Task: structure prediction
Amino acid sequence: MNDTSIKRQRSRPRTGNALSAAERARRYRENKKIRQAEHPQPSRAELLAELEAANNHIRQLEAKIALLVTENDDSIKTWSM
Result:
């Protein structure tokens, strides 16, 4: 091995295209605005309406289950709602 050879560096080589912290933060904020515009947050009223619809659906399913589940006279266990 030659003693005159250049020792290889241990880290990733620099490209010279590094951004400053302020530039990275600016890009992040710009991209965040774009993401929020593409997927807007639902309003409180929309969330409440969706919650009410889900609760109604749960009540309907519980009513169906209550019709299916009956007391079992043959065994010790008793099923009830």
Observations:
- DSSP finds two helices and no strands in the chain.
